[in-house]
């Protein structure tokens, strides 16, 4: 059996560097690499397969197979042993390839019946680029040293591919970061924008993957790790009195920074010929690969911590900090793996759009993006590895599509779409001051949702009649510690001042589920959407609720005040919360503070249980607002964060609309004012159907007021109601097709 020692591994890398240093074109350079790998590993065959598209691998270079098959042999991901390496990102090492699971014989390559097969993924930071394969006639399992040597070489090939070392003819050898790319994600905030890429965390580029002097590389690694450890210790000192969650993250950083196993693996990588930077990135790539396979949320977070720590170490080694010298473009579209609400607020309204590789529709970033009316697409795989600062980008928030470096045809069509939207906005501006009056004479009141002071100018510009929902939790989410009561008083005062006498509905702190405060101990609940959140937190932590109620009363300073409690599931919860309001009012009266001229206390109906509360509840509550986002997910038992199920259920489902009609009927009988708040209120077709069900107050994002008003003014709600009733009698599941047909005929 042939053994590959550490020195042989290093010799292979040195020969590889010589091959890279020549003036050969990309194809010739790749051919030379396969020759030297086959020679070094004493194998008859060495082949490099690279992706030509997301699903197809192409044979791009070979030593030992039919040269005519290069760029002609292709296979789908998962097909054959090579395709299985690509699909699962794992090494396949077998002495009996023809009998291995998934084997596929490829006669077009002219290959003989090779027994031994060793395939390793060519990947960089979790992104699969291709597969590196060696084969031999002798039935042998390659040694662990041989496997390691090939993995190291595969990593260097990945780095050099990133740097454009193998550019040639054909799709698989086309230059990276230059071709048009279409990426699909999930819509988190609607809108269509054009701009240029701004990377939140510029990618570190490793230009010297192979070590000149292993001893010097070890010294550099030790110096950088020591600097990293000192930096983490300093951050811990500063954070000792800060929030617990940040402290836990930094403790995890310190644990990894002092990990002997992490250090030993990087030292071994350097001993086998990698530079310090490449050794760090190799460990980072493996952590990212494991991250994609781990289901446990805690372990994923820890692997994410290690990934972040590796980035810090790479920046120390390369000197490539977050400040790259690049200037923020005039039309920036922010690209990031993920981003916190505080960081996003620092960019503010300067951003044209946001595209995240991770994130979620209910994340803090999504809440801020909606508040700032910035189009946002999340779950956009590969965006951080595909995009470069300054790249031309078009974000379609209506379709959840991102066009990176688009061609002229796409640019032309996209600009036409933006122009049409601009014309529509002009039309909406012309009806801004008109009432939303339907053709059958029904008045629908359109309100706006807000959560930041920056939202309030939209109250006048959009034509909204008031603020149907002011999310008070945003001021808690963007801080690293609990805001002071005086700060909240000042904020709420400015909100009421800016509203100019129009009604503002303040929703008390709605935290938990997908909105966890940075300084709040995580509960690690198995199903947080159904867990300890919103009013449940407020009643269990009454001190926070009282502090917020005091701030609201003092901010009103004698003016009318409207307060709404979120996620009320039963009458008792509302009664307990209302009792806290009464206690706070009495305390403020004794302290001599001015009490509100009028105080309305309502609740959000977000759970089906509240729709069936005793009549006494409907008699006592002063107003109700249907929280459509949560109510819909609980009605259909479909998690709105889960892409597999959330799109299966339509708001215009007959059962759901019938349920809405029941709520409307109960409120009409008791004379309880009712509104609908949620994403569906801002979608014109859904909005007219909700109005047809009897809802006369809809609250939405400011940009939706114009489109919703425009459609309401064109329809007859009696017609819409009849369409819904007829669809119910026919046993149809959704009324959408019938309503769309009616609207087309208008």
Automatic annotation (TrEMBL):
It is found in: Cytoplasm. One of its GO terms (molecular function) is metal ion binding. One of its GO terms (cellular component) is cytoplasm. Keywords: Cytoplasm, Kinase, Magnesium, Metal-binding, Phosphotransferase system, Pyruvate, Sugar transport, Transferase, Transport. It comes from the Bacteria. Its cofactor is Mg(2+). Belongs to the PEP-utilizing enzyme family. This is phosphoenolpyruvate--protein phosphotransferase. It comes from Phaeobacter inhibens. The lineage of its organism: Bacteria, Pseudomonadati, Pseudomonadota, Alphaproteobacteria, Rhodobacterales. The gene is ptsP.
């Amino acid at each position: 059996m042939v053994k590959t020692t550490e020195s042989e591994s290093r010799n292979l890398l040195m020969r590889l560097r010589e091959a890279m240093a020549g003036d050969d074109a990309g194809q010739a350079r790749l051919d030379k690499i396969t020759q030297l790998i086959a020679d070094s590993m004493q194998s008859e065959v060495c082949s490099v397969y690279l992706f030509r598209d997301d699903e197809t691998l192409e044979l791009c270079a070979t030593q030992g197979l039919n040269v005519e098959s290069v760029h002609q042999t292709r296979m789908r991901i998962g097909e054959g042993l090579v395709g299985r390496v690509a699909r699962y990102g794992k090494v396949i090492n077998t002495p009996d390839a023809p009998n291995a699971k998934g084997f596929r014989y490829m006669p077009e390559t002219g290959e003989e019946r090779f027994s031994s097969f060793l395939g390793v993924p060519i990947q960089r930071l979790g992104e699969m680029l291709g597969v590196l394969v060696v084969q031999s006639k002798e039935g042998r399992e390659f040694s662990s040293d041989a496997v390691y040597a090939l993995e190291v070489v595969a990593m260097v090939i990945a780095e050099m591919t990133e740097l454009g070392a193998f550019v040639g003819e054909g799709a698989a050898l086309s230059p990276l970061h230059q071709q048009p790319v279409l990426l699909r994600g999930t819509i988190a905030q609607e809108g269509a924008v054009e701009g240029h890429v701004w990377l939140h965390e510029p990618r570190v580029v490793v230009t010297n993957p192979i070590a000149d002097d292993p001893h010097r590389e070890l010294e550099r690694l030790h110096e950088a790790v020591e600097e990293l450890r000192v930096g983490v210790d300093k951050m811990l000192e500063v954070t000792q009195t800060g929030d617990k969650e940040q402290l836990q993250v930094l403790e995890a950083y310190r644990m990894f920074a002092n990990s002997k196993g992490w250090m030993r693996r990087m030292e071994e990588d350097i001993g086998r010929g990698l530079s310090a930077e490449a050794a760090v990135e190799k460990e980072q790539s493996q952590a990212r690969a494991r991250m994609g396979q781990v289901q446990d949320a805690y372990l994923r977070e820890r692997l994410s911590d290690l990934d972040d720590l590796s980035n810090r170490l790479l920046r120390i080694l390369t000197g490539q900090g977050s400040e790259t010298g690049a200037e923020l473009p005039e039309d920036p579209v922010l690209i990031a793996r993920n981003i916190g609400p505080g960081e996003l607020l620092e960019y503010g309204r300067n951003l044209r759009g946001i595209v995240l590789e991770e994130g979620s529709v209910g994340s803090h970033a999504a809440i801020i993006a909606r508040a700032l009316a910035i189009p946002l697409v999340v779950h956009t795989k590969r965006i951080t590895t595909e995009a470069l600062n300054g790249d031309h980008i078009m974000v379609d928030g209506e379709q959840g599509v991102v066009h990176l470096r688009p061609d002229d045809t796409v640019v032309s069509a996209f600009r036409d779409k933006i122009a049409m939207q601009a014309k529509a906005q002009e039309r909406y501006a012309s009806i801004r001051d008109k009432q939303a009056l339907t053709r059958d004479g029904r008045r629908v009141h359109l309100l706006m949702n807000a959560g930041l002071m920056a939202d309030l100018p939209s109250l006048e510009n959009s034509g909204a009649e008031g603020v149907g929902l002011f999310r008070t939790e945003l001021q808690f989410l963007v801080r690293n510690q609990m805001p002071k009561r005086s700060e909240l008083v000042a904020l709420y005062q400015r909100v009421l001042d800016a509203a100019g006498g129009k009604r503002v509905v303040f929703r008390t702190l709605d935290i938990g589920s997908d909105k966890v405060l940075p300084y709040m101990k995580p509960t690690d609940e198995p199903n947080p959407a159904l867990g300890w959140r919103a009013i449940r937190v407020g009643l269990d932590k009454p001190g926070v609720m009282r502090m917020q109620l005091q701030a609201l009363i003092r901010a009103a300073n004698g003016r009318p005040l409207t307060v709404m409690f979120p996620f009320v599931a039963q009458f008792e919860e509302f009664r307990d919360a209302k009792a806290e309001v009464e206690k706070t009012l009495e305390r403020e009266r004794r302290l001599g503070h001015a009490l509100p001229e009028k105080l309305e206390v309502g609740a959000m109906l977000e759970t089906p249980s509240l729709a069936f509360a005793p009549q006494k509840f409907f008699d006592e509550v002063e107003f109700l607002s249907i929280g459509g986002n949560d109510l819909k997910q609980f009605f259909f038992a479909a998690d709105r964060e889960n892409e597999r199920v959330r799109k299966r259920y339509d708001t215009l489902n007959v059962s759901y609309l019938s349920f809405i009609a029941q709520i409307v009927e109960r409120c009409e009988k008791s004379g309880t004012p009712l509104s609908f708040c949620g994403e569906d209120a801002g979608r014109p077709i859904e909005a007219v159907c909700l109005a047809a069900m009897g809802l006369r107050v809809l609250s939405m994002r400011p940009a939706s007021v114009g489109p919703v008003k425009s459609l309401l003014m064109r329809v007859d709600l009696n017609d819409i109601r009849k369409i819904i009733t007829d669809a119910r009698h026919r046993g149809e599941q959704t009324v959408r097709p019938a309503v769309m047909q009616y609207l087309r005929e208008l």
